[in-house]
Amino acid sequence: MESSGTTRRQATRQKLYEAAVTLIAEQGFSATTVDEIAERAGVAKGTVYYNFKSKTELFEELLRHGVGLLTASLRAAAEESEERGGTRVEALDAMIRAGLAFIDRYPAFTQLYVAELWRTNRAWQSTLLVVRQEAVAVVEDVLREAVRSGELSEEIDIPLTAAALVGMVLVAALDWQAFQPERSIDEVHSALSLLLHGRVSGH
Length: 203
Description:
This protein is mostly helical and 203 residues long. The chain contains nine helices and no strands.
């Protein structure tokens, strides 16, 4: 059982994450100050430093937290699909939908994550690579099982295919939100599902 102190601390951290992610998405990391983060979160500046040693540590933890939520939702989607007796490809399909739902719920975090992924020489680059690998590994596991069960060809390159699937979902979802917001999650999921099933070539 978690103590009320732990729960309160988690709630405070959640507020700080939300404040930081929106501010950094709006104006960039270096332009965002700890004062602004505290103000946006509705807490005292000292509270930020009580929870995180620095703005960099806050951002690093934010990346871990966000990608951790994404990884958990991908894993849950695959497990639910398996419990229903679905195939591995159906599990991948469920993961695509879970990824889209996550991005729909946390658009600012996703924009930030994608932007940071391609920057180098950042203090948190190694953290980013670790958390990215955790998310991609969930997809790799399901692909590996799909090859083992004969659902997918043994010719597929598992690490690259997993990275491509995650990348496809991230970029398609950001495009959906920025340029085609009138579309429903079902439409976006259907389009990506056709790609997954290899039906785009007209066979």
